[in-house]
Specification:
The protein has 18 helices and 15 strands. It has 477 residues and is an alpha/beta fold. Strands 2-1-3-4-5-6-7 form a 7-stranded mixed beta sheet, with helices on both faces. It has a 6-stranded parallel beta sheet with strand order 8-11-12-13-14-15.
Amino acid sequence: MPKIVFIEPHAPNLHIFSQFPLPRLGTLILGTMMKGRGWDTEVFVEDFRKIDFEAIASADLIGISTITSTAPRAYAIADRAREAGIPVIMGGPHVTYLAEEALEHADFVIRGEGERPLMAFIDAWERGGGYDDIPNLSYQKDGQTVHNPLLPFSGELDRIPFPDLSLLKPDRPRRTKMSSIPVLTSRGCPFDCSFCSVTGMFGKKYRFRSTENIIEELRQYDRRGNVIFFYDDNFTANRERAKALCAAMIRERFKFKWTTQVRADVARDLELVKLMKKAGCHTLYIGFESVNPESLKGMKKNQTVAEISNAVKVLRRHRIHIHGMFVLGFDQDDWKTVMRTVKFAKKARLTSTQFLILTPLPGSEFYEKVASENRIRFHDWTLYDAHHVVFQPARFSLFDLQKAQMVCHKKFYSLKQSVRKLVAGQWIGVAIAHYARNLNRMWKKRNKTFLRVVELLKPKPGAKISIDYREEVRLDR
């Protein structure tokens, strides 16, 4: 029986969800497909399970999935596997956009959605080779890099198997239970924000699974105390579809609660909001991004500050928790914008929030812009996690933008704010604030060197500075 090992590297730094691990579904779906195909299949999601290099040594093929911040570790793992003579195939958003970089460490790269290309690749592998017709595949042939054409995005999402979560095999007591159970009901986003790389990976056309197919998967998780996280980038992009799904969940009388990601425009449809609440919606993760109208316009968000304010009012009225996400550092932003943003978040009484640093992710329009303007200051991918400033902002020094994020978190999660939440009976908000304050302290301690570096830089506008801020990648042996 041939053996394949799938690996999802862990994040290199702390973030607000560090203690609440949730695997990306790509690795688990592909592992489920290979298991169903009859291959001996191992999955190592490092947030749940340390890599067993003996297991890797016995593999016939290794698949590694990576986002931008995990790319250096993914490459280090791939290098070690290839040194042992094991072929490596890589996939995920980062290598989709930077396939040639990845091919310095991997034998093959699958760009974009991986299900159909991987199965076609395995067909060829089992025949003994011949990869000219494998869609989405990048590889080296006769000393040249070959990028096979991309498949059109599939609308037949019902054909994708339910991920087998037993493949995770957590190896520590604290990792035995996920904070939420991940379920994906759709792909693609009809919007195209300048800082986002989702549409390049999954397309602008919104595609979704049938209601019947989703309900069938959800039935296996119908237990009180479970929390489902719908992994969709925009769960309510098609409101009629969302209503139909919520209505079906209500008919099933599911016992679990659920959370998902939406845009502020969800509040336009009160019928939908009421159905979501009745169907068990607990928390909505909303990318508000900014309360600066010029920033919203510049990022092509296609939303207004009035719409953001209305969303907060409507969702709080229907007792749905809000995790607000804001991004700092757009060319239209300055310190006044920062202070208005944190003031809005406090006044809105959001349950929790993230103040993220604008990050030029490969595959996004913003990346192309700042790269062409020579504004990228750090080229270490481990810093591309929306918590480190890596490019020269228009109206901040690097240190000031980094400081702006820390100030926002300090003000939003202050003891004074916690007391207000306590008086209001917002117990979840109080607990999250306590956790966030501790996390912020740990983050600053771990990133002391980085903070010192950006404080010393203070570049002049337009100056090009490149510092290799890279720590040695250590692998568990």
